[in-house]
Input
Amino acid sequence: MEKLHGFVGRVNGRIANRLSVLRFVFLGFLFLVFGMGDVWACGGRSPYFGEGHQVLINHSYANDGEFLITHMDMRLSVNFADKTIEGWVEYSLVHGYLRDNRKPGSVPPYHINPNSGNHILLLDHRDMDILGVYEGGSFDKKSGKLKKGARALVYEVGDGTGDTLLYGKPLEIEVPRSQSKIVIHYRTRPSAGALQWLSPAQTYDQTHPFLFSQSQAILARTWIPLQDKPSVRFTYSSEVRVVCGAAGAATVGVDGSRTSTTDCIGVEDPEINPTDFNVVMSAVKLGNPEGDFESASNWGPRCWPSGHRIAMNREGGASSNKVHRFEQKKPIPSYLMAIAVGSFGFQSLGNNTGVYAEHKLLQKAAWEFADLQKMVDAASDMFGEYAWGDYNVLVLPPSFPFGGMENPVVTFATPTIIAGDRSLVSLLAHELAHSWSGNLVTNRTWDDFWLNEGFTVYVESRIMEQLYGKNYADMLRVLGKGELNRTLSWMLAENPADSHLRLHLGDRDPDEGLTDIAYEKGRFFLMMLEQYYGRAAFDEFLNGRFRKYAFGTVTTDLFLADLKAFHEQQVALNSKLLVWRDFEPLVLAWVDGEGLPNPQVVGGFPKVESKEFERVEQQVSKYFTSGEPLHPGSTIPCDASVIDTSGFTTHHWLHLLRQLHTRADGSPGRLSREEMAGLDARFHFTQTQNAEIACDWFVLSIQSDYRPAYQAMHDFLLKVGRRKFLMPIYEALLLQRVVKDGKYEPAFAQGKEMATEIFLQAEPGYHSVAARSLRELLGLPLTGGSGR
Ligand code: BES
Ligand code: ZN
Output
């Protein structure tokens, strides 16, 4: 099956772009010839409804060998009161089987209802209720209702296999042979794993509720039924409305009409106007950037309570609301489906760049991201035309579980990169870099995740070097190497195979592949290749790949084949290079080998040094020699006043804090509480507003039992939901030691109690992906969906 799927994935992008009848027939033929054995073998009988035939392949139930989604036309109603999205989606499908050449049910591998002869489409879905499935054209997008005489299609929710809390269950739909379109009517549940519904109190402006999605890796299925695997690409168009709804259970009629007993727009505050909300999706916005007014007649009866301030429409007519329209004409994988709804504004930052942020944060964000246009221009110069039209960044509330998410057209970002000094903008370079590595050329499976992230970190560092110079980029490389080493120190002991670039996740959550291996080992592998071939030659290789696989997918095997072809060209030009036969094992040591290759050999770990950080290291050794290394009976604490921090930027500070984990004699050390107090008095770390620095400081504080930082640490954990910061702090709490009779003693039980208590208090404010990871860390039961 792997082989078949590999093939399907490679041509997906091209199918969506320019589908020709010939290719279609050819594909069908291949499905028929190569696709049979596997599905047949797993079920043992012709599978159709209820036969337990559902299998997870690359984390998805989708039978994309039989059907491909090529386009989705969506109408979404966002309801803050119910915490639901109601969707009407019309799917364009390509049938991937030979239509005419055989009798119904005669070919066992297909999902067919033998009675009707209809093929069965399997979609991924989780945390949602399916309200109906209809043949194409059944739905009137304008009125938001079913057309008269619409025909319902037969569907069923399968049992699923394995961890259905994580993977959901297959939605199985009988698709008549004549239909190339179907309509699904559904409603998400408040537990939908991708979606986080925030109260006004969790936002910057504190006035409006907020909704955002995080679909990567396999959460798109919690807010749209679809083929949730990166090898399937489709285009989409969408209309979004923020609607009112009953706080209790609203009923939805088959025609889509809602009957509710109470009317509200999701917040009790009558001053909140539904037209205050703005909407973005991972697509180009059509019409007015703030949404277009339309008549309230589209909204069904009693939509707006009389107590609410209702905007007039443009013509000054009756009460009206807004519709937000989007179009994504480039085929994208499901994990790039995204939506955000809140009260936020927009500011242009150049030709095709801009920032969205809540109103009171907008100016600050625009100042922080002033270089965004330069980044886009530099990246386009180096790696080819930017494919997605505009590049905007949306600043989310602090519960956003990641630093950034590369949703096409609009990157989602954590507000913790707004440090007030533009020092954390490499994150924007990272998300922008995904416009080439990831969004344009996509990992075919989550086993190939390093092809997304390793390439992106490499491209990110090229952008940073181009804008801010080599010394700056070198600091980021050294910090990256430090993070990689820290990850390896536990991974090599616990699960060494996870340190291979190419993963074999099987049924494991793809989230488990999100480690520094994909990012940093991947980046340093590419850096080694760059140094080996020379930058100019390596750039040709990169650019060639972006052109060759544009709007398609890649696997590690494809990468290796392309590298081999490129290598052989290079060898022909330069006789000093090793022949592929001798170079290949070095490459495979990176791709399929544990840990890091020896830096002393050709093809080994590249040299990573920073001139700037030498300065920091000198200061650190000065500090450590100003006192005595901590040992029983030590009396002379190190003296913070000897440290010269002139010209320090965020990165210098981070390097300093990370060096403080190690003593002058090389032993991993813990600063005494007195030493921590000395550093804090001089540098005010506990009060820092820089979340990167705060995170490192809180970890040190816990390790040293430095209590004066605990309140700030606690506040931080309640406010910030970025998993990269949460994990190390909670981990440090679990390993807590306390000072007793002048000595550090393990206090693990106490640490666990404290961590659990803080977590349970903070959890309602965390996104499901962060909550899930923390529940695992703390040994709390996983409750699926929202992790709560
Ligand atoms: N695409 C990732 C985030 C992601 C990966 C989410 C896998 C879910 C599953 C994004 O581009 C990313 O790498 N974010 C980093 C940014 C950092 C490396 C600059 C993050 O969030 O920390
Ligand atoms: Zn990334």
Remarks:
- The longest strand covers residues 320-333.
